[in-house]
Write a structure and sequence with these properties.
The complex is a heterodimer.
Chain A (H helix, E strand, L loop, with lengths): L1 H22 L22 H12 L6 E8 L8 E7 L8 E8 L2 E8 L10 E2 L8 E7 L12 E8 L4 E3 L5 H22 L2 H19 L7 H7 L5 H14 L2 H11 L4 H17 L2 E2 L7 E3 L5 E6 L7 H4 L7 E3 L7 E6 L5 E6 L11 E7 L5 E7 L1 E3 L3
Parallel strand pairs in A: 9-16, 10-17
Antiparallel strand pairs in A: 1-2, 2-3, 3-4, 5-6, 6-7, 7-8, 11-14, 12-15, 13-14, 15-16
Helix pairs in contact in A: 3-4, 5-6, 6-7, 6-8, 7-8
Chain B lengths: L8 H19 L3 H16 L18 H9 L14 E5 L4 E4 L4 E5 L7 E8 L3 E7 L9 E7 L5 E8 L4 E8 L5 E4 L5 E3 L11 E6 L8 E10 L8 E10 L3 E4 L6 E11 L2 E4 L3 E6 L5 H12 L6 H10 L4 E6 L2 E6 L8 E2 L4 E2 L2 H5 L1 H28 L9 H12 L12 E5 L6 E5 L5 H12 L3
Parallel strand pairs in B: 10-17
Antiparallel strand pairs in B: 1-2, 1-8, 2-3, 3-4, 4-5, 5-6, 6-7, 7-8, 9-11, 11-14, 12-13, 12-15, 15-16, 15-17, 18-19, 20-21, 22-23
The chains are: A alpha+beta, B alpha+beta.
Chain lengths: 388, 456
């Protein structure tokens, strides 16, 4: 009898231990650096982090994590989780995810990337202000099949006070001193091979970094892109479209227009989509005020204020109301009404159900177009919950 | 071959001529070619060749012998074997002892040189090789080069030598037959996945030569098949052991795998432990007919757009599972790799693994299965979006395929607002319709459109 009791006790202990380890999740630990233990002192597996993200987002889509870090990004004693994520199921780690804890809930921001297999070069405080920037490899040319190279560039995201925003144009000197020289070496090495594809790849990447180093308005690479636009190789013409859209000068856009009419329907398809993407990236950034917490269960409307106290002043008000969209990506037709809030700016109300916001979302996006075709974009931090 | 010490150049030349005659007699299988060779040797002897490979201070008039060398080389057009290996131990016509390592370096110790020359061998296709013999010893010898062609049985090679600083002539190598060697497969051979719907090799036969009188000797074989992409990804290594008796053969086939195989054999012969010179072969891919690929993909999918998977395969890999490249220094049909050194492989560009790399049936099945999962995911997302937008209709099955294509591709997103379709209000009213999400996920929409453009 005693022996039986002993064996049952051992079995129960083992069962409860395994149950405990299975249930272990970052949500069960403090995210404060000063506590010991805290979430960063635990040894986590990528699967556990995947499960954690899946839980906090209640996503319909399987999210697989490859590499991750618990790190105090902002130097404020609170840990964030940074992870690379694959949504495709084919190990395309094309998303960098930042998870922050707010009270008992978590918010989630994603940055579009390309093939981030390791975070080792992604997180760095490059301006020594005590806050980490995110150096995110970002596609410059589209995916044209696995064996064909895809040009990329390093987008720099910095902390805006509430979210990470793409802020590459503020780091011209960093591009000039840290990125351009490396790409120059890569270009020299490519030229030594006499391989035209390798040379084109290195040149496209070098020119992009050069444009960032030179500052807004740089048109470096235009001539090469215009030459590529006449290539007999449709893939080169697609690359040309990418570079021309990124340059965005009148001359570049004129050549891009010809590619949108290319005899190869695939070139025309990509040229059109590339131009659309580039246009979105070139929208003027504005500040927006969004409620900190959005409870999907109870808040039917979301009020967003675009402050007038912005250097653009009245021009912000001159948006086409019908163009205003707001939501998880910013393209959601969720507008109910917009009013002139006087000194406060524009106050718009959006229907929560139509915003595409889901539990765990940490960023909401406001977009609007002006009658002259230019556009505005504003990102605001939120915490989306679903608490009945 | 017995070494001969030469005390005079005349004696050297006569001995060389005799050796050449004997060598040619040994290797000349047919009447015409060996007679021609003998006649050419006679021409050489009559020219009083007084030089040897690596010999310093060759008489300056030896350079004219190059014409006779050309005459000599022509008759040696014995049937060239399709593939011989230069690796191994040899003797050469002037008494030199040669060792060529698998990495094509080696040495030659000539009897008239106080130390050995270092060799660097370059293969000239499969029928011959060039030798660069470098010298760092005394003035009695110099560096030289040789340009050789294999004999019909691979047991000999012959050609010309040129010494640094002057002097040239003809040379013949004769392979030293080891006591114990691997006879089959031959070094640097390849066996391709041409059987079993392009997933298996034909039979690869393993046979050793244990020498006469040793027919009951147990030969222990160990093979190691290794593969990794050009970027070192997906590394696998499989070791197998088996046994043969005497000169017996064992046959193997390889399925859903490939790479470089190193073959070792060992045996105890007459009480002495022997190891054969290792042999390297390559298990490689092959070209798979487009029609075979299409039939497979259409059969696997069976969805609304029956040939949709052909569009994915064509977009992802240009309809290739294997492509010609050089891995392990061997040019062959290897698994098609993603540009980044092979993170993804094959027709559907699946994450690298041994089976996804070497078995196109597995690769295509994995891709189609994943796409089927994406169809299910697309439906869940669709239902969630519909629940939030009054009056929004269900997607058609073709439209749901477009959603799945985005989820399969590199712009896959978990966001409701970054799918192929997004809801848009109809006029100012409360009802909704689906529109293509060119703004929210331009890359994903472009990928899906591109796949459809590539459908066979």
């Amino acid at each position: 009898m005693k022996t039986l009791f002993l064996w049952v006790s051992i079995a129960l202990t083992l069962l409860l231990s395994s149950w405990g380890s299975l249930a272990q999740t970052p949500a069960n630990y403090t995210w404060s650096v000063s506590s010991n233990p805290n979430v960063s002192t635990v040894k986590w597996s990528a699967n556990q982090i995947s499960d954690f993200i899946h839980t906090i987002t209640a996503s319909d889509v399987q999210i697989r994590v490859g590499d991750f870090r618990f790190i105090d990004l902002l130097g404020n004693g609170s840990l964030e989780l940074v992870a690379n994520a694959d949504i495709s199921g084919r190990a395309f780690f094309n998303t960098v995810v930042i998870v922050r804890q707010k009270g008992s809930a978590f918010s989630f921001q994603k940055l579009h990337a390309i093939n981030v297999e390791s975070l080792s070069d992604v997180i760095a405080d490059i301006n020594n202000d005590g806050r980490q920037e995110m150096l995110v490899p970002t596609p410059l040319t589209p995916y044209l099949g696995g064996p064909f190279p895809q040009a990329k560039w390093t987008a720099i995201y910095s902390w805006s006070g509430s979210v990470y925003l793409e802020d590459s144009s503020s780091f011209a000197s960093y591009y000039a001193s840290n990125i351009v020289p490396t790409l120059q070496q890569a270009l020299d090495k490519a030229k030594a091979t006499s391989d035209p594809l390798l040379i084109a790849l290195a040149q496209v990447e070098f020119d992009k970094a050069s444009r960032l180093a030179a500052g807004v308005g740089s048109t470096a690479g235009t001539a090469m892109a215009q030459t590529m636009a006449t290539s007999s190789d449709p893939k080169m013409r697609i690359w040309a479209a990418s570079v021309l859209a990124d340059i965005g000068s009148p001359a570049a856009l004129a050549t891009l227009s010809t590619l949108k009419q290319d005899v190869d329907p695939e070139v025309a398809n990509y040229a059109d989509s590339i131009q659309r993407s580039a246009k979105q990236d070139q929208c003027e950034k504005v500040e927006v005020k969004i409620p900190e917490t959005i409870n999907l269960a109870s808040r039917k409307l979301i009020g967003v204020t675009v402050p007038i106290a912005d250097r653009r002043g009245a021009e912000i008000k001159a948006v086409a109301v019908k163009s205003i969209t707001f939501g998880e990506a910013g393209f959601e037709q969720s507008l109910v009404s917009c009013d002139d809030g006087g000194q406060q700016g524009i106050i718009c109300m959006f229907r929560t159900a139509n915003t595409g916001l889901q539990v765990g979302d940490g960023v909401a996006v406001f977009r609007a177009a002006r009658p002259d075709g230019t556009c505005l974009v504003g990102l605001g931090a939120v915490q989306v919950v679903n608490i009945p | 071959m017995k070494q001969t010490h030469f005390t005079s150049r005349a004696g050297l030349s006569i001995a060389v001529g005799a050796v050449l005659l004997m060598t040619l007699h040994a290797c000349g299988g047919g009447g015409t070619s060996s007679n021609d060779a003998r006649e050419s040797v006679a021409a050489v002897i009559s020219g009083v060749q007084t030089c040897a490979p690596g010999m310093s201070n060759c008489p300056p008039d030896q350079s004219v012998k190059i014409n006779q060398i050309s005459q000599f080389e022509k008759p040696m057009a014995l049937t060239s074997p399709t593939s011989c290996s230069v690796v191994g131990s040899w003797t050469e016509a002037f008494g030199g002892q040669i060792t060529v390592n698998p990495n094509l370096t080696g040495s030659i110790k000539l009897p008239y040189c106080n130390s050995a020359h270092s060799l660097a061998v370059t293969l000239n296709g499969t029928a011959g090789f060039s030798v660069q013999a470098s010298w760092s010893g005394g003035s009695e010898c110099v560096a030289f080069t040789e340009n050789m062609s294999f004999g019909s049985t691979c047991a000999t090679a012959s050609g010309s030598y040129i010494n640094q600083g002057g002097g040239s002539g003809i040379d013949t190598w004769t392979r030293i037959k080891p006591d114990f060697s691997i006879v089959s497969p031959g070094d640097q051979e390849q066996s391709s996945l041409t059987e079993g719907n392009f997933t298996s090799t034909p039979v690869v036969s393993y046979r050793a030569d244990t020498g006469s009188g040793n027919q009951n000797v147990s030969v222990l074989w160990q093979t190691t098949l290794e593969y990794k992409t050009s970027g070192g990804r997906g590394a696998t290594s499989t070791t197998a052991s088996f046994q043969t008796i005497g000169n017996g053969t064992t046959d193997r086939t390889y399925s859903s795998s490939g790479g470089r195989q190193t073959i070792k054999a060992s045996a105890t012969i007459n009480g002495s432990s022997k190891s054969a010179e290792p042999v390297t072969i390559y298990i490689t891919g092959t070209s798979i007919p487009n029609s075979t690929i299409t039939d497979r993909l259409v059969t696997l999918y069976g969805g609304t757009t029956p040939n949709l998977m052909t569009g994915i395969a064509d977009r992802e890999s240009s309809y290739r599972h294997f492509s010609t490249r050089t891995l392990y220094g061997f040019s062959a049909m290897w698994p098609l790799e993603a540009y980044d050194g092979g993170s993804h492989v094959g027709l559907m560009m699946m994450p690298v693994s041994q089976t996804s790399a070497w078995d196109w049936l597995v690769n295509t099945q994995s891709g189609v299965s994943l796409f089927s999962d994406k169809l299910a995911t697309a439906l869940r997302l669709e239902n969630r979006i519909i629940a939030q937008h009054s009056g929004l209709r269900a997607l058609t099955s073709t439209e749901r395929e477009n959603m799945a294509l985005v989820l399969y591709g590199p712009h896959a997103s978990a966001s409701l607002s970054e799918q192929y379709y997004i809801p848009q209000q109809v006029g100012n009213g409360p009802t909704w319709q689906w529109v293509v999400n060119s703004a929210g996920n331009a890359g994903g929409v472009a990928y899906a459109t591109s796949v459809r453009l590539h459908v066979h």
